Structure of Penicillin-binding protein A:
Amino acid sequence: MNSPIKRAAVACLVMFALLMINVNYLQAVRAEGLSEDARNTRNYFERYAVQRGRITAGGKVILAQSKEASGDFKFLREYPDGKLYAHITGFFSPESASGIEAARNSLLDGSSPDLLLRRSIDLFTGEPTRGANVDLTINPKAQKTAYDALRQSGKRGAVVALNPKTGAILAMVSLPTYDPAELSGTDKGKVFGRYDELAKEKSQPLLNRNIDRTYPPGSTFKVVTAAAFLEDDSSRGPDTVVDAPQSLALPGTSVRLPNYGGAACGGGQVSLTFALEKSCNTPFGSMGMDLGYDKMREQTEKFGMGQQLGIPMSVAKSDFGKKEDQAAVAMASIGQRSNQMTPLQMAMIAAGIANDGTVMKPYLVHKITDAKGDSVEEAEPEELTEAVSSETAGKLREMMVSVVANGTANQAQVSGVQVAGKTGTAETADGQPPHAWFISFAPADDPQIALAVLVESGAANVGAEATGGGTAAPIARAVLEAVLNK
């Protein structure tokens, strides 16, 4: 073979090799990026070519569904009561999704491997592909009641309710809210423009305050400090006498920790029940320091704090805070300093006490069925942690019942039902009025619901209205009644 032919052959081989490398690079490395590229109009239209499954609550109430469209788009997404369920369903936009729409996307659009058999049957019969239906654990009555009660407060906030025996989420409301239909259209200009507007709003309506953000829990956290105190010595109980000075010296500082409003707490020594009823700061700050950082943090972890949870949406991690000095431990033990909790975590604490000390893993998806109604997946309740012994849970239950019957949470009382609860008022670092909190479960002897209520900057007035008992407890009462009075 002469030299020119050899050079031509080598050049062909090199070009062929480069072509194969490029093909493999595009298929193996850049395939996903190219598929998701906003300029890929074929992918854009295909996103609306499949009839996505329904999202329902209680198997009946439709939260999201696809309706037939015209033109280049076969189906469009609609949300019959969008604002009420926005932070649960999320939205389905031209290029992204959120909430259940994102967390269960492959099932809703029919592409999940779990639907392979269904797709094969549809291919054989000539039927178009349809997504699976996702039924949620949400109780529509409880959801609507929580939404209305929180909205009437005129404040930003969150309400989340659980079945303490299973972990099923019965209600999850975050205000302010938004209309997911505005972010689920096909006009990219309108959708992206509206998203940018919502994202820039100071009130952060896109934020699910139950799971996306942590807050100082204030005095609601005192039930965790009480749990650690009781677990540390099984001989202790609701009648155990604890020191309760009007103010508590914080080691290494010139600062003293006062009770709420600078008030006295009994006669300087009170029962543990009385301290919880009146939400005295000094005894719980003292308990936290006596127990020490390690024991306090261990107790928080037993309630599930610090674990990465998915419900299936990802949940921000709650945290007792880093190890500092004894003064910091005292403040963290009354729910301040670097102590940060999500409303969901606080509901899990109430649920764990209600469930004899066992915290169940929270979940939002009850059942998934294919387009023909055949079951694809069903939830199975799962234990998350053993927070306290059943004996300690019983003691805490007794004290929390007394808080509602005789203490700061009397506005959470439900006629004919024994309610357990704990109020909280949490100072904020930004100079805003304190947050108002309330955690609860009922009936105390056979709990069917546990919940947490957070009203951001809800403690704007003085006296009773400045506590979770005046602002958050009435909201909780309405939700308790909605679930218990069937």
